[in-house]
Amino acid sequence: MIENQQFDKRHVSTEGFDRYLDSGVPIVLPIRGMPEVHIFIEPLKSELGLRVEAEPDSQAPDTGLRNIVARIAVRDGKRFLEVVVTMAPLFRDAYPVLCSMADRIQLGGLSPSSALRATLDKLSSLLRAPDWMSREREVGLFGELLVLGGLIGSRGLSNAAQAWRGGQAEEHDFGLPNLDAEVKTTTGERRTHWVGSLTQLVPTRGRPLWLISHQVTAAGAGRGHTLPDLVDNIRLQLGSGVARDSFEVTLSGSGWQEDDRERLGTRWTRRAESHAYAVVGAFPRLTSDALRHSDLPLDRMPEVRYRIVLDGLESEEDVPQIIATAIRFEGQI
Fold first, then answer.
1. Any idea where the domains of the chain sit in the sequence?
2. Element (H, E) at 185
3. Using one digit for the tens of pLDDT, what is the confidence trace for 140-194?
4. What span, in angstroms and rounded, lies between the C-alpha atoms of 141 and 182?
């Protein structure tokens, strides 16, 4: 394997990279900076990758892509995160992407997992038409981060970050030790919320489900917080490490893009006190089980969205302390 140590720039030019690629020889290209980052080419394995030393307890994130994978490799007793492109025709186009990830690690100070996610997000944004975060999603994410901020104070950084599931399909927003929580946020004067499916308010077997209801409104100058405020505040508390990486992955999966930051300038504050409700008994909800014995052709209604009204409703059970503490969070940890 060739070790290239002679550099007068941070990255080998694309022309130089092409020469290495055409040689058909395995090669490792170090990139100046700290921590140490290397680009490697393994022609026989059809691999182009980036390698950086990993934290002892870190895990390889799921890229969600077929031809770009992340893995943990052990070399000379050290653990490395490797981000690998596995399709040779993509190598020339992928090389600048890996260099961009190296810059985020060495110049931007991101952890390898966060740098990978940021790089893939940027790449995705170049490949799709403009798709800015909707006001509904902005408000929804604001409400989830209010709960996450409250959990950081009571559960600690790691436990809180891992509890947040965000945009994961078929999962409730938060998975806590003995219960799940679904978060709904409205800007209306009434406590009404949209429910997006017949399964959203179905408890996971053996685990109680609670619905957390926020009512927010646009605040005056100097009051409340913007969505970017909450993101930055939580990032500051999490610092770097596994908890931060978990947060960044879930945040991205929930629709957050750094490019949207300037468009998310509305300052939000609570219109009314937040409440929590046990999803049991007479709590208003539609489920497949409840409709199964009706004459409705449910198989012909693949999507169901309905609105519930919670004004004046009292929870049928006492609110657990972990939720009562979380929903009092005001946006500043």
1. 2-127, 136-326
2. strand 179-186
3. 999 999 999 999 988 889 999 999 998 665 679 999 999 999 999 999 999 999 9
4. 12
Residue 156 vs residues 62, 114, 153, 183, 254: alpha-carbon distances, Å: 24, 20, 6, 20, 22
For residues 230-252, one letter each, b for 16 or more C-beta atoms within 10 angstroms of the residue's C-beta and e for the rest, the string is bbebbeebbeebbbbbbbbbbbb
Closest among 268, 260, 234 to 248, alpha carbons compared: 234
CA distance 323 to 229: 22
Residues 180, 154: Cα–Cα separation, whole Å: 16
Q: Which residue type does 317 have?
A: E
The count of other CB atoms within 10 Å of the CB of residue 279 is 23
What does the DSSP assignment read for 252-300? Answer: HHTT--GGGGGG----EEEEEEEEEEE--TT-----HHHHTTSS--GGG
For residue 1, count other CB atoms closer than 10 A to its CB: 9
Pairing of strands 268-278, 209-218: antiparallel
Give the pTM: 0.64
Digit-coded pLDDT (tens) for 290-330: 888 788 887 888 888 999 999 999 999 999 999 999 998 87
Residue keyed to tokens 């025709």: 89
- Which DSSP category does 167 fall into? T
